[in-house]
Amino acid sequence: MIPFNKPFLTGKEVYYMFQAVFNGKLSGNGEFTNKCQKFFEEHYGFLKTLLTTSGSDALEMAAILCDIKPGDEVIVPSYTFVSSALAFVREGAHIIFADSCKENPNIDPDKLEDLITEKTKVIVPVHYAGVACDMDKIIEVAHRHGILVVEDNAQGLDSYYKGRPLGSIGDFGCVSFHETKNVTAGGEGGMLIINDEQYIRRAEIIWEKGTNRAEFFRGMVDKYGWVDTGSSFLPAEINAAFLLAQLEDLTEIQNRRKDIWKLYYDGLKLLEAEGYVKLPFIPDYATNNAHMFYMTCRNLDDRQGLISYLKKNGALAVFHYLALHRSKYYTEHYTERPSLPNCDRYVDTLIRLPMFFELKDEEVQYVIEKVKGFYKDKLSK
């Protein structure tokens, strides 16, 4: 069976993890944490980065820094993972769900204006599949209304919008290093990107359980204590060590994933031309980090049939998000029933094909031929 995902190991992870253990500093904010953060700040020019235990934790830190109060409204796309909304719900926010674009699952910026009220505090664009949202439009609307922007960049590391790395454009950016992402911190991990100097000090305090411990380690204070809210958002050093090994091979990882993505795209173009599927749309302003290869089918029956057909033929393909505006939690706690037709369409028709570093060219071609075979079989019936 060709799996949907398989985490890649560079071979240096265990060696660096051993070094972390040998150093005798296993808790967070040690040598490997600092090396990873320095990598991101130097490689991408991020103002300040803080490693976290997950992308969800990065979002929760951002929600705290946005100073969310009960009743504040936060605009989130419905076609996303629950953490995009839950981080703000935990702070008391009222979630306003937005529809996706017609051409890709990203939030539709042209519909934001109608969703904004005097209570709107934050907009959360999610860069689906590592392809940038239209950030100029989003930032313009946000700035005009005095609204903060938190980029959910869980899937978008090493992807760009008009030459700017994703995560660096809003007030905050949030990255995931879950095992399904292009690089991982050993299964779980994340990072908060802070793009405004005024938030850095408080971010470090929130990161360190509400204490000024980071300032103590830098010799800025002679003792540290509880000064604000916060939580235990730091990852262990062994996770940072694992991540550093991956980051050192980032170019190789990215190049291979992009080669696989192109093989899929070129091999399935004919099916799109014949009207059976829609392939990913990459706007001119965006780059592609090859986080995933997805396509949309004509309808739910086609999508479910194709998943079953591929599984019977030894390849695991999967659908993606269920609409948050139709979730059990939302329908039990909210009275609004928004109409989000593009989101609903992606829920029913989007399929993701196997994508991981060690996927062989011949395996990609096999999946392509089986996808074509599914539609050929449908035509013959």
Would you give an account of this structure?
By secondary structure, the protein is an alpha/beta fold. 39% of the residues lie in helices and 13% in strands. The protein has helices spanning 13-23, 31-43, 55-65, 83-89, 135-145, 200-207, 213-217, 237-247, 250-273, 300-312, 328-333, 341-349, 361-380, and strands at residues 48-52, 73-77, 94-98, 120-123, 148-152, 160-161, 164-165, 172-176, 190-194, 277-278, 293-297, 350-353. The strands form three sheets. It has a seven-stranded mixed beta sheet, sandwiched between helices. It has a three-stranded antiparallel beta sheet with strand order 10-11-12. It has a two-stranded antiparallel sheet with strand order 6-7. Strand 2 (73-77), helix 4 and strand 3 form a beta-alpha-beta unit. Helix 9 (250-273) packs parallel to helix 13. The longest helix has 24 residues, at 250-273. The radius of gyration is 21 Å and the shape is globular.
